[in-house]
Every structure is written in structure tokens, then in C-alpha cells.
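Researcher: Let's run the pair from yesterday's discussion. Sequence first, then C-alpha cells, for each.
Model: Starting with the first of the pair.
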Amino acid sequence: MLINFTFSNFHSFNEETTFDMRAGATRRHASHISEIGGMPILKYTAIYGANAAGKSSFIKALRGSRMMIRGEPLTNYSDEYCRCIPENRERPTSFEYLFETGGRFFQYGFEAVLSSGHYSSEWLYEVEPETGMERKIFSIESGDKGLVPDWSYFTEEAERTRLEQIRFDSDSNDSNEDYDSADEEEFEEVFDCLFLSKMKGKKFNDLPNLEVLRTVFRWFSNKLRIDYTPAPSTDEDIQRTCEILSRYDTDLAGGEYRYDRDVTESLGKMMGPRLKEGKSLVSTDGTKLIMENGVVNLYSIHTAHSSCNADFSIHEESNGTRHAMNIAYNLFCSKEEDVTFILDEFGLAMHPLLVSRMLKDYQEHNTDNNNQLIMATHHTSIMNFDHLRRDEVWFIDKENGISQTYSLEDFGERPDAEVTKRYLEGRYGALPLFADLVNNSKEHA
């Protein structure tokens, strides 16, 4: 579970910003909390703010840092520092996560000067939740004499040798090859790849103490879900999703994938190398590619409706229906546990009552699980104490181009407060400010 996320100098965020999922003093909705290791962690958060206030920039900070951890080149982010301040080009950007997985608590982070394409430091600690005591697992610092790693957590010589093999990309999963430290003198090390990202595909059967590195990497790779996962991949998944949505007056009665066309010529060169015979790539738009007999074929979802005998392509469904399908599939059909879902534009093009009901149903569905749902949204229909606790409502506001985050918890509202009304009245900020368009037009006529 995500406990907090701290970052700085990224997109519209300049100074260090912390988003915290630790529960506050509010006693309402006890089922919205998972207590692990004596730490109460929230399951839900809704983030509000005006258009262009920084909600999507916040999601991009999570998405971008996760992709860097998974190995995406840092050069893809060379101009994504906070450009409102020119000096930030040479200033480090930082990301740090505190999270729980398998009952253990970890703090992992890194710094990089994005414009240079190089990292400056990386660290991983295990944290004792009740005392806050930290034990360093590893760190890497960039200094005048190159990179300085600290492997002191790992006491066995074989462990440190393996870590150095991985660091210099001379590691083999099949053997523990001899490592000659003299090779370092001939190798000009560039800190352009996070050490944790090198855990992908690694096996440590002979050195179980190193498994902690894979545990941390797998949390970022498998348990931190940012944006919607691909659409249902099988006809069974589609049918289950439509059955769920039929309860919400959507008229959907079922669906299946159907052959659309051969896209070998248009997409084969780009997507072909990623496909194996009989395997598929599923998109979020209700389509999937399948390699069949060396041909790349496109299939798309077709839905059946209760009110008529006709069926429809997924692209004929409304934006709201397609978005509701994504929510239903991701939240209700997933059998995975301990997943943190982070969704931008939650409830896009959906009726407020539908958003309200689906959230309520998911909260009931998730009572005995430790899944988290963090959503950026404009739907004030769920900004109330029937749906959310005071500490589960966050705001993002912008001043002079710089975004900042804060919680409704900071305002100490009473349990009977009409928070939606107060928000729209401007009590909490994070609202759009409008100019007088009519008078301004007359002045310039």
C-alpha cells in the first residue's frame, strides 16, 4: 500500500510536495482504513482542483517516476522539470515513496537533474512503522570520483559480488560468473539508469538475502497501477464487465471480441516484434492485436444491448459508457489484492449519480481487501462525508504557475459540514477564477 509520495521540481510542482495516505484523527468510515504494523493507512482519496491546477501533473509525477524505476530512459524527461523557474533546469528533481508490501515497510527514492539525463543519487531503506527507525538496504551517490555504492546491508561477499555484477551489467541469472573489480577502472560509469530498474528478470535463488530488491521492484511493477489497465482481454472478462454495468441502467447485456481487419501492413513493423504467435496486446480503447499465422489481426469489442437485437462496436458506445467499462473492469473484475489504483479523470463523461453509486459499491466490495483507489476528479457528487473521510479529500491549487497540495483535514471541518457547498463557495480554494468575458469583449470592441 502507498503510504506517502514526496517529489519536487517536476512539471508545475516546484518545492517539495508530500501526498500522505496515513489516516488522520477522523473516526468516520473505519472500513476505509487498513491497519498494518500499527500504522493506519487510507484506502481512498479524491483529489480536486481547477482545470490546469496540477492534478494531471501530480499523476504524471507518479507515472513518470514509476516508468523510470521500470527502466524508461531518463532522457525522455529532459524538459519536465518545473520550467516556471529557469534556474530549475540545473536543479535536481526528486521522487520518494514510502510504501508497504507483504507486511514490510520501505522507503525508496532517487534524485536526478532531468536536463542532464543523469541521476545523482538513489536509496532504499526498510522502515519500522511504529518507531520510524530506518535501516539502509543500499544507496548510490554520484561524487567527484564516480559513483559510490553502499552495500553494507549485505554482509556476504557473494552478495556484494552479485550486486556489482548487476551494477556493471555483467550479471547472469544462470551462473555466478567471476567478477574482477579491476574492470571498474576501465569502465566509465554513467548514472543514467536506476539500480533498482536492473532487478527486472533477476533471480536470486542462491542468494535469498537479495530477494528484498526484487520485492521492492515488483511492488512498483505489479502493485502500483497508474491509469487504467488495458480493456478486458477475453470474452469472459467482457461478459463479466457488462453484467456489472447492467446493474447501473447502462442497457449493456454482454459482449465479445470480433475480428476487425488485418493490420500487418500498417502496424506490423511497429507492433510485430512485441507479439508472439497466438499472443495478444490489449489496448485501453477496447481493441487488441493478435499474431495469427504470422499476420497481425485487429479485434475489437462488440456489445449487446437489452433493449434491441442489434449489436454495437465499442467505438459506437458513448464516452461515458466506455469509461464506466474501464472502471468496472479495473476495480470490480480484478482478483488481485494489495493493488494501488491511481486514476486520472475518474468518472469522465459519466453521470454524477453513476459515479456516486459505483464508488459506494466499490468501497463495499473492497471492505476485506487492502486495495487503494486514488482518483483525480471533478465530481463533487462524492465530496461528502457519506462517501469519504475528511482526510480522504485533497486539493491541488496553483499560484503564479506553481502547484501545491493540501488536505481537507487541514480545515478541521465538523462531521455535519456541507463540504461540497463550502468548496463551491471557495472556502477551500482549488477553484477556477473567471474574468468578466462580456465586459472585456465590450472594452476591446
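Model: Moving on to the second of the pair.
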Amino acid sequence: MRTLIDAGIFVFLSRSGAPRVKSRGAKLDFQFKLSFRKLFGLSNNIGLGSSDRFELSGSDLEKWLESPSKEILLKNLGKGYSDKDIADSIELKDEGNNTIELKDEGNNTTHSSTKEPKLFDVIKPTFEREPIEFNSDYLRQRVKLSKVDSVPKVDLLLIANGFEERCEHSIKKLLEKYSFNQVIMFEHNKKSENIEKMITEHFNNSTIKKMPINQYKDVIPQLRSYKNFLIDITGIHKPAIFDVVREAVKQKLPFYIAYTPAEKNYPTDEDIDEQTSKFGEPLNSKIFTAVMENLLTGVRPPYNNISLMNKQYDSLMRPTALIAVISPKIQRIFSLLDNNEYEQINIFVTQGTSHREQLSRTAAEIVAANYQYVKIEELNETAHDSFLNILLQKYYNLYNAGYNIELALTSTKMQTVAFAAFSAVCKIAQCWYVESGFDEKHFTKGFKDTHFYKIEYG
């Protein structure tokens, strides 16, 4: 390995000079990364990039040595590309006349040529889609998320029987205040007997429909048959929230959202302060791993990255950007980045100075120190409608820069609602959910007031 490095075959990918962070539960491993030395111009012929892992072997290697081609290399990138995906990504428009755009660095002009590109020719990138101008009214004309004081008579109630105390309180308040013609209740593996009893006493068997939470997709086609519906997202897990809200917005179905925040979320400010104070200094990247080792976060391994959409990439050769909001349950974002490669990472952190917010911000800074092209921005956690507009501005910038755009559900359930509504009206390549185990005793405690939201269409 030393010989290869000395020969310039491999180089240290130092980025900020810090090692890469890999999460293994609460513990973090630090790794230094090596990369193939870049040969400028070569990428235009075979698509080589610092994060590509071709690792050809066997018959694929023999085929590529005999006849080098983009198709063979793409098959080994590890993203599950099918033969059809690869065929769709090939730029057939250049095969007819073999014309390329060459840039003359001397006079900064471009011209067409029919000659074969040489290794160090500077090839001007071409975009298959035209840039779009930012339109602040685009979302307002299509979907709007607004807070309301109450909801009118609702035909269908969607709820989930979960283990959190706030789930029971939220359902109880809804049944005290409103009447519903029918209720569909998703059931988790761990459920509350009190919620079961409450629903059974309030509705007769003909108006109650119960199903396991993993069958939530069966409900989506039925929503159109109701005049309107209310979904209480308090106890429903994020994949179900995302899919139900996204499909309802795409079909312009009238519905409302109820949400009851927890009084206390793990990791708590008190626990973070206690663990940090042992080191006699404010929370920072140096003590981050040690603090996390003894912190009760409410989640536990294994972590599993789940894709929620069918891939919708404009081109497999385009760079991919991620948009995510980082929460104090920081293992989720680390797990996602451990297994996915991005050319740009856009992270939102909640405004504020609490210990939980400092933990999220420190985790974001660690991501920025270990990955290329990371942008960190602050976000008002309670301004959900303005978050949609912030997403739109970010989307325009990335779209016009030629990125495929992915989302990650790594924060609150209300932000999941915003991501779902946004993905229904803007083209998103993929959305990710990080599944984990739960520490039921240290996930949330208590409850606050229930809030209501309305989805409106332009």
C-alpha cells in the first residue's frame, strides 16, 4: 500500500484533515480514506469519480478489458441499477454524429468538433434539462400547510396504537372533541391496552378497521372514497406518514393533520448536560464520541436504510444531493451517510441554544468535517409552511446545478409531513427512512397540547 501511495496510484482523501466517522451504535469509528488519484479528462470517457467503486472481476473484467464501456462500469456501482436503467442513462443523441463540445481555454469560446476527445481535452458538460427560474408562488399555487385551531366534521380518522404516552392522550382528546364516521387504526408490535379499550368503547365493530402498521399501503387506495379524513400522526411511524400524505396531496384529497408533541424527548437536555459536564468543556467534536457512549437516545441498533420511493433519477450519471434535517437522534443521519454516497449534503439544524440543539449542531459539524461539500443551515422547527418555501429555494439551486435530489426523514414527524407534501409537487429522486430499534422506556415522556394543520391546494 505504501508503494502504491508513493507511486501516486492512491492518495489520502483528507478533505478537512479529519478522519471519516462511521457509526456502530453509540460508538463511532474513525477511519482515514484513500482514493484513486484523479486524472482530469479521464472521467469524461469512463465516468470515473472519487467515490465510484467499480471493482470489476471475473467475466465483467474480461469484457471491459476486451471492450471498455460505460455499461459494464455502471453495473458495479452498487446502487441496484437494472439493464433498463443503464440503457436509459446512455446519451444516444451523440451517437449519430459523434459531435462533442470543446472549450478553447485561450479565448474562452466553444466550438463543435467531430474528432475523438483526447485524455486531457476539457469537455463542456451538457444538460438534458433546461434551467428553471425561481418562482416563490410555485408551491403556494399547488399545496399549502397551515395551522388551524380546529377541524370540521371529518369522515375518517386514521390513528395508530403505539407505546408512547402521548399517543393515548392525543386519541383521547380527538374522541372527546370530535365525532368520526369510521376509524382505521394501525397497530404496532408494542401497543397500549388503554387505547384498544378506548377505541372499542367508542366505536362499534362495523366502524373500526384494525391492521398491522406494515400494511398501511393498503389504506391509501381507499382514501378517495371518503369525503375527507384526519390523520393523527402522533403514533404513526414516518414511512406511513410520508406515503399517506404524499399520495393524498398528489390526488388533491381534502384532509387534516393532528399532532401531539412529547413533553420530553430523548436524549434529554439534562442527560446531555450531565454527560458533557464530566469533561469540563462545552460539547464539541473532540468529546462527542465519549458523550454519546453513555447517552440514552431512545434508539438502538441495528440501523437499516429504507428507500420509500421508486428511483426517479434524471440520469444515472448526474451527481446526487441530499437534503436532511438532523435531530438529536444523530445515529440516523450517520447510518444513512455510512451507506450512501453524495456529491453534496445539505443539512438543516434547529435554531436555539439548548443542549439538544447543540448536540445536533455538533453532529452536523462532524459530518461537514468528514464529507465533501456539506452545507449547514439553521431552521425554525415550528415554522412548517415557511420550511416548504425554504425547501423550494434549495430545490431550485440544486436542480439548476444538475443534481438528482434525495430527501432523508431523520427529524420530526411534522417535517416528514412537509417533505411528503413537497415531494408530491416537485420531482424527488428518492426519500430515505432509517429504521432502528426502540428503547421504549427512554424514547419520549409526557405530552403537550394537540395541534391541528390543514392541507390546502391552489
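Researcher: Give me one sentence on the second I can quote.
Model: Residues 210 and 280 are 52 Å apart (CA to CA).
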